[in-house]
Design brief:
The complex is a heterodimer of chains A (206) and B (201).
Chain A (H helix, E strand, L loop, with lengths): L1 H15 L16 H12 L10 H19 L2 H15 L3 H23 L19 H10 L4 E4 L2 H6 L5 E4 L7 H11 L9 H8 L1
Antiparallel strand pairs in A: 1-2
Chain B lengths: L11 H9 L3 H23 L2 H17 L10 H19 L13 H17 L4 H20 L2 H12 L4 H8 L3 H18 L1 H4 L1
Classes of the chains: A mainly alpha (206), B mainly alpha (201).
């Protein structure tokens, strides 16, 4: 059949000058006359449109206009995406490595530039602190409102006599018991003027 | 028009490579070289000059966008033909004009042209009026019969018998084996003969 295809133009020219050739098909049987008639009828249906001499140049000009219109109608983002896709299509192996390194570098540069934007002057540790005297009153009030403990100090004279000076921290809710305790403490204290131990004396007396 | 003389001696393959490397004028040369053939092929399918023009333009635009993916497994023209046929198919599907697919009987320009060619052929044979009437009737009946074929059979009949493409070309265009093509052609011819049996007898 390849041989037939090779000689087909030659066979066609022979048929034009009036010679009839019986083309032998692969099954080595001559085609029936109906088949030949059908083929010639079908061949007669071939339609050749009439072309002007400038058909190609007009076609090309129209093609350029079409491409230009397509480019204009595309949005900016579509163009970027198309270019990006074209880029990706051509990427091979090691180019991905360079591309990823370039991306990381770009990200780092971007980060550095963005961070440098916050440091126009020298670093000032008081930049975010309140102005002097502005919140002083509120701080004082806050200290008064929220007492943590109440401190009681033993008188200095008693501390001198007994080296074991005691400082008691009394809870707020135990304030009512405070006078009694103070009295008992005072009772246990030695009498300095008599130079005796009244507690022991009292104990003995009891 | 752009001067494309320096590309006139280049082969299609060379022009494709140059176009792939960004030389757009090489693609212009390919358009100049193949636009008429592509248009003629599509015209055979659509039977409408303007539709064929649009489809041929679309074919070259699609080919241009896909040119980077063309690896030269087949000839450029075969590849372009395949794109043109697919584009024409899609165009006809969009128009929902399946009955008009291939050799429309409604298109007056095609009918007139075909009749004219038959008349001219008949004139050369002596211009027998009875024969002329017979041939016209036969041709009309043949067009009706072709339209009655399935789209697959119609495609191969048009490409092989009307357009005169070789088996190899058609099999590459349609993406089918030559065996399948022969089988389709055989059954299509058989069906046509059955439909035109009264005329053949």
């Amino acid at each position: 059949m390849t041989c037939l295809n090779t000689y087909k133009p030659f066979l066609g020219s022979l048929s034009k000058i009036g010679l009839t050739l019986h083309i032998i098909t692969m099954n080595t049987q001559p085609k029936d006359t109906h088949g030949e008639t059908l083929e010639s009828l079908l061949a007669s249906l071939k339609q050749e449109p009439e072309y002007s001499d400038s058909f190609e140049s007009e076609f090309l000009r129209e093609f350029h206009l079409r491409l230009a219109n397509e480019r204009q109608s595309r949005s900016f983002l579509q163009n970027i995406r198309a270019r990006f896709e074209n880029c990706l299509e051509d990427f091979r192996g090691w180019q991905w490595v360079y591309a990823s390194m370039a991306l990381v570098t770009l990200a780092a540069i971007g980060f550095i530039i963005a961070d440098a934007g916050n440091k126009h002057g020298a670093y000032d540790p008081y930049a975010n602190a309140p102005a002097i005297g502005q919140d002083a009153e509120s701080i004082a009030i806050t200290d008064q409102i929220v007492p943590v403990s109440q401190e009681k100090v033993v008188p200095v004279q008693q501390q001198d006599r007994f080296r074991n000076s005691r400082v008691e921290y009394v809870e707020d809710d135990a304030e009512t018991e405070q006078p009694a305790d103070t009295e008992s403490q005072q009772k246990t204290l030695p009498d300095v003027s008599t130079n005796q131990e009244p507690a022991q004396t009292a104990h003995y007396e009891e | 028009m752009i001067n494309l003389d320096k590309y006139s001696t280049c082969s299609d393959e060379e022009l494709v490579v140059m176009a792939q490397q960004g030389e757009s004028q090489a693609y212009d040369m390919l358009i100049v070289r193949h636009s008429r053939k592509v248009h003629a092929l599509v015209y055979q399918i659509t039977a409408n000059f303007e539709d064929a023009h649009d489809i041929a333009q679309d074919t070259f635009a699609r080919a241009y966008r896909s040119l980077a993916g063309f690896n030269g497994d087949s000839a450029f023209f075969t590849w372009l033909h395949a794109i043109a046929i697919n584009t024409a198919r899609n165009h006809l599907k969009k128009r929902k004009n399946a009955t008009k697919m291939f050799l429309s009987l409604d298109e007056s320009d095609f009918g007139d042209k075909a009749d004219r060619s038959m008349e001219m052929a008949d004139d050369t044979e002596g211009g027998n009026p009875e024969r002329r009437v017979y041939l016209n009737e036969l041709q009309t009946r043949l067009k009706e019969a072709i339209n009655m074929l399935s789209s697959k059979h119609r495609e191969v009949v048009i490409l092989h018998d009307v357009q005169g493409l070789t088996h190899l070309e058609i099999s590459m265009l349609l993406g089918i084996s030559e065996g399948t093509l022969r089988s389709r052609l055989h059954y299509a011819h058989k069906e046509l003969k059955d439909l035109l049996e009264e005329y053949f007898e």
